[in-house]
Amino acid sequence: PEPPDVVAPEAEDIPELREEAKGCRRCPLWRDATQTVFGEGPENADVIFVGEQPGDQEDLAGKPFVGPAGKVFDSILDDAAIDRRKVYVTNAVKHFKFEPRGKRRIHSKPNAGEIQACRWWLDKELDLVKPNLVVALGATAAQSLLGKAVPITKMRGDVIEREDGLRVFVTIHPSFILRIRDHEDKAAERERFLQDMRKVRKLM
Ligand code: URA
């Protein structure tokens, strides 16, 4: 028989899983990224928010949603009376994918293979946290959680129940608000996202 230490033990909690994910080589994105950015939050959280992938600042800090999109996210959660410290926040893809442009690193979209490879970790986070609701922030998260591409603008605000019973709330990614230049449009889009977060709070 195989000696027991040959088979990696199943992670029994989020800190163990985070530790395991540090050495992830399931797709090539680990090569250029600084570190794995794993999910964060209480293991008994009622809700999991899933973003796309860490950005430049998240890659350096090792924490999800701490950069510009994270600031927008935090302020809207606050307005919706959702306490970020009580929710679990993670990403569909856990390494930063970018193109170097001079000294800057420009975000680049994860592809279907990278999303699929990283689903392994997201599934385990879902298994351990067992949330009542998962919020897909944007197309990448929705694709990872639902196993197919879904039209975000059409599905936004909808709750989709998966075959395993998990409820997935679909909405936009907060970076979408960040990119709007026109002040009125930006304010309107922020308000729509705030309404989505108020719905989430009722569904939690
Ligand atoms: N955008 C994401 O999708 N996730 C982060 O962690 C930061 C920005």
TrEMBL record:
GO biological process terms held by the UniProt record: DNA repair
Residue ranges of domain Uracil-DNA glycosylase-like in the record: 38-198
Family from the record: Belongs to the uracil-DNA glycosylase (UDG) superfamily. Type 4 (UDGa) family.
The species this protein was found in: Mesorhizobium plurifarium
Molecular-function annotations in GO: 4 iron, 4 sulfur cluster binding; deaminated base DNA N-glycosylase activity; metal ion binding
Alphabetized UniProt keyword annotations: 4Fe-4S, DNA damage, DNA repair, Hydrolase, Iron, Iron-sulfur, Metal-binding
Lineage: Bacteria, Pseudomonadati, Pseudomonadota, Alphaproteobacteria, Hyphomicrobiales
Superkingdom classification of source: Bacteria
Membrane spanning residue stretches: none
Protein name: Type-4 uracil-DNA glycosylase
